Amino acid sequence: MAGAPRHVLVRIYMIMSYKIGRNAPCWCGSNVKYKNCHEAFDAKLKRYRLLGHEVPGHNLLKTKDQIERIKESAIVNRACLDAVGEVICAGMSTEDIDRIVYETTTKMGAIPATLNYEGFPKSVCTSINEVVCHGIPSKDVILKDGDIINVDCSTILNGYFSDSSRMYMIGNVSEEKQKLVRVTKECCDLGLKEVKPWGHLGDIAQVINDHATKNGYSVVREIGGHGVGLEFHEDPWVSYVIKAGTGMLLVPGLMFTIEPMINMGTHAFNTSKVDGWTVTTADGKPSAQWEYQVVVTEDGVEMISW
To answer: For residues 170 and 88, is the Cβ–Cβ distance under 8 A?
Structure first.
């Protein structure tokens, strides 16, 4: 599901909530003594914090075992988007897309994370043309030749969460819309290259915003990416309008989504007063979004779902 508004995320930045003895088992679950595992790592985090950087607490860092379980969830997540991509076409309804996602998810033993999430009534988000995010599938919404649509799929498998989205172009799409879809994916790919241990979330945001604005587009400001894995929406909240060198420190084990919403017109949007979910561009111009779920590694980044 597209990134939640910043105010709904609980933000916790304490580096450690308790003292760990050097000979005690490490907090990461490795069963290795703390002094031989994460003691030096924690000392490095403490130095960054004392220098004024925003650092994640242990609660935000995924262990190796957790990452492997989240990857299992991501297999289902990607299978849903693959299944949609095989059949999506003009004439089908967004309710048809929802059915495909629900059936694929449940057949693989998983649960659609969006279904009944804070009242959201469907198993997937389907956002067409000027819909920025959180479009609700309906039997009355029929895909037409020339549409662009974001299908945002979120999955729970054995309590672990995965989340990604893709754009699909329906039939004969105008060059203008094709460019928006292409540039938005380029933004995500450029942002992905900036995910490096001991960098900052702002490094990702800066390159995304620069590429979007260079192409004449704007980036939605108030809705962004989010941490994910053990919960649907975790810290950090991921902005795409902050500067390089700012924002939370990118630490190995930190997992989050890269999912900028790029508008052809202004960054302004409206949220439906009818359903409380559907977000549309204020000027009625198209919007596009891709979503990658990633985790920071010791030497770079690993894609979890895309």
So the answer is: yes
Crossing angle between the packed helical segments 94-107 and 64-87, to the nearest 10 degrees: 140
Quick: pLDDT tens for 69-86.
Answer: 999 999 999 999 999 999
108 Cβ neighbours under 8 A, 6+ residues apart: 75, 76, 79, 157
The type of residue at 293 is: Q
Give 175-231 as a DSSP string.
Answer: HHHHHHHHHHHHHHHHHHHT--TT-BHHHHHHHHHHHHHHTT-EE-SSB-EEE-SSS
Kindly write down the DSSP assignment for every residue of 120-181, as one continuous string.
--SSSEEEETTEEE-PPP-TT-B--TT-EEEEEEEEEETTEEEEEEEEEE-SS--HHHHHHH
* Longest CA–CA separation in the chain, Å: 64
* Residue pLDDT, tens place only, 207-252: 999 999 999 999 999 999 999 999 999 999 999 999 999 999 999 9
Supply 28's token pair.
């990461």
Q: Reduced to 3 states, what is the DSSP secondary structure of residue 29? A: coil
224-260: string of b/e by CB count within 10 Å (b at 16+)?
bbbbbbbebbbbbbbbbbbebeebbbbbbbbbbbbbb
